[in-house]
Amino acid sequence: MPLQGSKVAGKSASLVASSSSNRRRRRRVNRSMSSSMISTPTNSTTSTIQKIYDISRDVFAAATPGFVPPPSDVERLTGFLDSLTLQDIGLDATMSCFTENPQDHPKVTYVHFANSPTLSLCVFCFPQSAVIPLHDHPGMTVFSKILLGSMHIKSYDWVTASSSNQVTRMPNGARLAKLNTDAIFDATSKTVVLYPEDGGNLHCFNAMSPCAVLDVMGPPYCLEEGRDCSYFDSEAVHAGGDGQYAWLNKVPRTIEMNGFPMHLNIRM
User: What cofactor is needed (predicted)?
Assistant: First the structure.
C-alpha cells in the first residue's frame, strides 16, 4: 500500500531526509500527535521489526523498478509476516489511532519503521470507516499483512493492448484495467502480494473495523525516479465487461494522514 503521492508528516528525520520530497504532492501528514500514542518499543518489538527488515533487505537487495522477487523469497517473507500479531510490532488495538469516531471522517495514521534505497517498512492504522483511495505502485512489489480488524480491498491491474485491437486508452487519458480483487480480508488472512504488472497493483482500502496493515514495499516510492503515487477514479465498463473491467482516470488528490515515527535502533 503505500502510498507515495500524498504528504506524510510526523516521520523521523531519516525518513524526511530520504523521502519527504517524494510525498510532496498529494499526501499531507499531520505532526500534531501525542508523543504518548505509541509506547517506547520493547526489546522484543525491536527484535521482531529488525527480523522483518533483515528478511526484506535480502528479498529486495536487487530491487529496481519492475523487480519481482523469486518465489522462494516471496515465500520466505510472506511466511514470516503471516506469523505476526499487532502486539509483535509494538501496537495495541486501544490506541487512539484506531478509536476515532467513524462519523468524523477519521484519518489514517502512518507509522514509519525503516526505509532504504530498496525498500520501505511501515504500518497504516485505520479507524473504522477510514479509507485510502484507489492508487498505484509503479514498478513496485508490495507485501501487505493485515494485523488487526477487517478491510475491504478492491484492486486492479492494467490491461495491455492485445492482437485483437482492444481499446485500452481513452482520449481523456483513462486506461482500461481488469478487476483483480474485490473482497474483505482480516487478520487471519495470508499476506497479500502485488507485483509491478499483476496481483492488483492498483488498490483501495476501506476499513470495515479498526484495522492495521503492515506494508513492505520495494523499491520505495521516489518522485525523482518516476515512482510517484497516483490516485484514480474508476468507471465500470458496462458493455460486455461483466463487472470485471473499469476505466481508471488519474485525478489530483490530497490525502491527509496522521504520522508517527517509531524510534527504533534498526541495523540497516
Answer: Fe(2+)
The domain 43-153+182-223 is placed in CATH, from the list 2.60.120.10, 3.40.50.300, 2.40.110.10, 1.10.1790.10, at 2.60.120.10
Output the pTM of the full model: 0.86
* Distance between CA atoms of residues 58 and 55, nearest Å: 5
Query: Per DSSP, which regions of the chain are E strands?
Result: 27-30, 109-115, 120-126, 131-135, 141-148, 150-158, 175-186, 192-194, 202-207, 211-218, 231-236, 245-251, 255-261
Cα distance between residue 257 and residue 107, in whole Å: 6
d(CA 260, CA 138): 25
CB atoms within 10 A of CB 14: 15
Let me know how long the chain is.
Answer: 268
Cα–Cα separations (whole angstroms), residue 16 to 11, 23, 92, 152, 156: 6, 10, 26, 30, 30
Partnered with residue 233 across adjacent β-strands are 249
Contact 67, 141 (CB under 8 A): yes
Q: φ and ψ at 53, to 5 degrees? A: -65, -45
Whether residue 156 contacts residue 202, with contact meaning beta carbons closer than 8 Å, is answered with yes
